[in-house]
Amino acid sequence: MIGRILCLFLILLINSSFTDFPTNVNPAKFVLDAMIKAIDKHNEFSYYVTSEERIDGELSNSTAFFKYQFKPRKIYMKVVKPDEGVEILFGDDMYDGDALVNPNGFPYVNLSLNPEGWIMRKDHHNSLHDAGFHFICKVLEQSMQAVGDNFDKYFKYRGDTVVNGKRCFHVEIDVFDFKYFDYKVKGKENILDISDRLWLNDYLIVDKNKDVDDFDDVEEGKVIKLPSAYARRIVIFIDSKTSFPIIEEIQDELGVYERYSFSKIVPSPGFTDEDFDEDNDAYGF
Predict the structure, then answer these.
(1) Mean pLDDT of 117-123
(2) What is the spatial distance between Cα 260 and Cα 207, in angstroms, rounded to a whole number?
(3) Do 152 and 76 share a domain, yes or no?
(4) pLDDT, tens digit, 9 for 90 and up, residues 194-207
(5) For 68-201, where are the alpha helices, taking DSSP H only?
(6) I want to staple 76 with a disulfide (CB 3.0 to 4.6 A). Which of 67, 106, 159, 261 is the partner?
(7) Is residue 11 domain-resident?
(8) What is the maximum span of the chain, computed from C-alpha positions, in angstroms?
């Protein structure tokens, strides 16, 4: 009986620690600031990510292993499923800006592809430029800046919960006034230019404009629909011990648009040049 009471006391003590935030700070801001700070401490990460992305109305599912260096940007990616064994190498100062792709099958030769091109992006919401944890930090920082003094209206702390055996903080950015508006394309800009400048989800823009087939399928004077924010809702589950995100979920007005679940996160693994070398004996290029 004493043992059961002691266990109950410890559980209550642990749970209480997750809501012990400074009284003068929105808990969502406290948690997100801690996450951004924790990520900024590291220039390198390795991790597995399971991606669920809405393609043609259905949620696709894939898993990949990443070696990621933020500055200078270098990425090694190996698909676990569904296209097992496909490998990608990419870096800002590698392959003239292209990505080197080992398709692990037909056409049985390495390919050099534009990481922002529709061939690589058609079935994937995000480009290699958006890989890693620093991208979501930038999205959040831009969102905080956009709402200004209205932070408390949009950013909500939803408490703590357990995700994949880890105690996590649950934070939501609820853009309750999310909408689409008409935008007239200027000059020679394309969807990528527009999304980069306004911090919008480029794939979502293509998705919501049925007469736009890819990122370049616009011309000056064309009127397209743009979302008023990056997402209708952003949901993040953050590991309370490491402050790293475990799940990032992006929703549009229909529900889940993309969800990324991270596991086996290793910060600052100590990469060498060999980790981003196509001649690495462990790789199949």
Answers:
(1) 93
(2) 19
(3) yes
(4) 999 999 999 999 99
(5) 118-121, 133-147, 151-154, 191-198
(6) 67
(7) no
(8) 75
